[in-house]
Write a structure and sequence with these properties.
Layout lengths: L5 H8 L15 H14 L4 H8 L3 H13 L15 H11 L3 E5 L10 H12 L5 E4 L3 H9 L9 E4 L13 H11 L4 E3 L10 H8 L2 H11 L3 E5 L1 E2 L5 H4 L5 H9 L2 E5 L2 E4 L4 E2 L11 H6 L2 E5 L6 H7 L7 E5 H8 L1
Parallel strand pairs: 1-11, 2-3, 2-5, 3-4, 5-10, 10-11
Antiparallel strand pairs: 6-7, 7-8, 8-9
Helix pairs in contact: 2-4, 3-4, 5-15, 6-7, 14-15
Length: 333
C-alpha cells in the first residue's frame, strides 16, 4: 500500500486534479525545467502532451528533460536487485532446520549486493508497525542498519538485547544502533540498556541487575517480536575480545570449556550448547529469553566465522540466517 496521502496520490494519477497546465510564457529557466520534469517523471505525461499543453515542440521538451538531468533537477538512480544464492540458502536451511537462510551472492560485485545490504533488505520486509525489535551490537550489525531505509512502518519499540562494550570504534555500540534504527521510522521509541555487556564480578552484575531501569530494559528486550543479532568467533576478530571486555584469561578459559562462538554476549560450544562460565557476569537477555523471541535473525559472514555460525544454528535460537557465499559453502559442505 502506498504511504502517500490520498490527495497526493490523486494528483499524480488524475490529470483533472493537477490544475491547468502552465503556459511556457509564465515560466523561465529552472522553473520551466522543473515544471516539465515534474509532469514527465511524476505525472506520467507524454512528451507530446507536454509539448501541446505548453506550446512547445516535442524535440524541445526532450531537450529540456535532458537539461533537467544534466543540471541535477532530475536524478536517476539505478539499483540492481540484490543478488542471492537461493539454492545454497535452501540447502543450509534444510540441513540445520532453520526457517530461512539467505545467502548474499558476490556475483554482481555491487555495494548493494553485499551481506549487510541483503540483510537490511530482508529486515525491511519483516518490520511491521508497533513491532518490538531487539538489536545487538557489532560491526556487522552496524553495517546492516546503515543500509536500512525509511518506510511506512511506524511506532516501533527498539531495544538493546545486551549491554554495551567497554572500548570500541564509534558506531557499533548497541545504543548507537537502536537510536539509528528508531530514527528511520516515525513515532518509534528507544529502550536503552545502561550497562556493560560483561562486568568484572557476579557481585557487580547482581547490583546492576537490581536497578529498575536495567530491569525494565531487559524485560522489554525479552518481549521483542524480532531480534537482530551478530555472531562472533573465538579469535582476535571477535568484537568482545577487540573491545577489551574479555581479557586473555577469560578467552583461554572459554576455549578450554569448548566455546567456539558467541551470540548476544553469550557463548556456546560446537554442538550449540551454552558455555555458561561468564553468565553470572553478563548483562543481557538469557538464552531462554532469546529462544522465546518469535523471530531471531542472525547476520554473519566470512570463512573465518563458518564454525561459529554452524554452531549458532544448533543453539535453537536462530530462526533466520543472513550470510555470504564464503561462509555458506562451508555450512553446506
Amino acid at each position: 500500500m502506498s504511504d502517500q496521502p490520498t490527495d497526493e496520490r490523486q494528483a499524480l494519477t488524475d490529470p483533472s486534479s493537477r490544475g491547468a497546465p502552465r503556459a511556457v510564457g509564465e515560466l523561465h529557466g529552472v522553473e520551466l525545467l522543473t515544471e516539465i520534469a515534474t509532469r514527465f517523471y511524476l505525472h506520467g505525461d507524454t512528451q507530446i502532451r507536454i509539448a501541446g499543453d505548453m506550446g512547445l515542440d516535442p524535440s524541445t521538451v526532450s531537450r529540456y528533460l535532458k537539461r533537467a538531468r544534466d543540471e541535477g533537477i532530475v536524478r536517476v538512480e539505478i539499483r540492481p536487485p540484490r543478488r542471492q544464492n537461493a539454492d545454497l540458502g535452501r540447502a543450509i536451511a534444510d540441513r540445520y532446520g532453520v526457517s530461512r537462510v539467505i545467502v548474499a551472492s558476490a556475483a554482481s560485485g555491487t555495494a548493494r549486493s553485499t551481506l549487510p545490504a541483503v540483510a537490511a533488505d530482508y529486515l525491511g520486509g519483516l518490520l511491521r508497525s508497533r513491532m518490538r525489535v531487539g538489536v545487538g551490537w557489532g560491526e556487522t550489525l552496524s553495517s546492516v542498519v546503515q543500509f536500512m531505509e525509511p518506510s511506512a512502518v511506524t511506532a516501533l519499540t527498539i531495544c538493546q538485547l545486551a549491554g554495551g562494550l567497554s572500548e570500541s570504534v564509534p558506531g557499533i555500540q548497541g545504543h548507537e544502533l537502536v537510536r539509528h534504527v528508531a530514527g528511520l521510522y516515525p513515532d518509534s521509541r528507544v529502550q536503552y540498556l545502561h550497562a556493560p555487556s560483561i562486568v568484572d564480578s557476579a557481585t557487580i552484575r547482581a547490583a546492576i541487575m537490581s536497578d529498575s531501569s536495567v530491569e525494565a530494559a531487559l524485560a522489554t528486550a525479552a518481549a521483542s517480536d524480532l531480534a537482530l543479532v551478530g555472531i562472533g568467533p573465538m579469535d582476535e576478530d571477535a568484537t568482545l575480545i577487540r573491545a577489551g571486555d574479555l581479557d586473555r584469561a577469560d578467552v583461554l578459559r572459554l576455549i578450554r570449556l569448548g566455546a567456539v562462538g558467541s551470540m548476544n554476549a553469550r557463548f556456546y560450544d560446537i554442538a550449540g550448547k551454552p558455555v555458561t562460565w561468564l553468565d553470572d557476569r553478563t548483562v543481557g537477555i538469557s538464552w531462554e529469553e532469546l529462544r522465546a523471541i518469535p523471530l531471531v535473525v542472525a547476520v554473519a559472514g566470512g570463512a573465518h566465522k563458518a564454525e561459529a555460525i554452524r554452531a549458532a544454528l544448533q543453539t535453537g535460537c536462530v530462526t533466520a540466517l543472513v550470510t555470504d557465499e564464503e561462509a555458506g559453502t562451508r555450512l553446506a559442505g
